Amino acid sequence: DTAVSQTPKYLVTQMGNDKSIKCEQNLGHDTMYWYKQDSKKFLKIMFSYNNKELIINETVPNRFSPKSPDKAHLNLHINSLELGDSAVYFCASSRAHRVSTDTQYFGPGTRLTVL
Amino acid sequence: AQSVTQLDSHVSVSEGTPVLLRCNYSSSYSPSLFWYVQHPNKGLQLLLKYTSAATLVKGINGFEAEFKKSETSFHLTKPSAHMSDAAEYFCVVSDRYGNKLVFGAGTILRVKS
């Protein structure tokens, strides 16, 4: 009965490869997010989608392409992986895009290591 | 721009003693403020949030935080620490337009038996 799930949990890959991380929420929420947590533990928003439409793209390189096939899924595809992409990526969801009031529910994270 | 500063990267307390995790914010408007907790290998969980109602906010697991505008602070407290409280805690502010959350650097809480 996991609310927000991500796969895979760990991902180790070589520079230059293309990889995807999947996220699914079973809460019936309209809004989903991707966050990046770097080695210094700072969490920063990357993207947010509301009803499959892109709301926020926080100056993320275009090698990162989110895809939302439906409201319950927001996948993250990364092309030409670089060393600096190594981080923990968190997916989250909320009822609506009222960040100041709607609680965001986070997935367990995907630890990406680029060698 | 809005930001949060968590004043301690690590806090260590003994079980049964009070917990204080400090957070200062910077904002030119009335912010919404949150505390999230992250247990090892788990996602973040909301502890409590302040959204311009009562300045003393009670959260889950006995935690509470007080919004002090004059001090631009939103410190997290708990009267008596439990071993299960050992985790990393993030102070968070929403941006001016309510579009995104801005996270602090986190405070790791260690609870000694």
Give the helix tally of chain B.
0
| Integer-rounded radius of gyration of chain A | 13 Å
Count the beta strands of chain B: 12
Largest beta-sheet characterization of chain B:
6 strands, mixed
If you average the pLDDT of chain A, what whole number results? 91
Global outline of chain B? globular
Q: What is the element string of chain B, with H for helices and E for strands? A: EEEEEEEEEEEE
Oligomer: heterodimer
Q: Based on CA inertia axes, which overall geometry of chain A fits?
A: globular
Please report the distance between the alpha carbons of the first and last residues of chain B: 41 Å
Structural class of chain B: mainly beta
Proportion in helices of chain A:
under 10%
Throw out a few tags for this protein:
heterodimer, A: 115 residues, mainly beta, seven-stranded mixed sheet, four-stranded antiparallel sheet, globular, B: 113 residues
Description of the molecule:
The complex is a heterodimer of chains A (115) and B (113). Chain A has strands at 4-7, 10-13, 19-25, 31-37, 43-50, 53-57, 64-70, 73-78, 87-94, 105-106, 110-114. With 115 residues, chain A is an all-beta fold. In chain A, strands 2, 4, 5, 6, 9, 10 and 11 form a 7-stranded mixed β-sheet that branches. Chain A has a 4-stranded antiparallel β-sheet with strand order 1-3-8-7, with no helix packed on it. In chain A, strand 5 and strand 6 (53-57) form a beta hairpin. Chain A starts with a strand and ends with a strand. In chain B, a hairpin with a 5-residue loop joins strand 7 (56-58) and strand 8 (64-68). Chain B is mainly beta and 113 residues long. In chain B, 0% of the residues lie in helices and 53% in strands. Chain B has strands at residues 3-6, 10-14, 19-21, 23-26, 33-38, 44-50, 56-58, 64-68, 73-78, 87-94, 101-103, 107-112. Chains A and B meet through strand 5 and strand 10 of A and strand 6 and strand 10 of B.
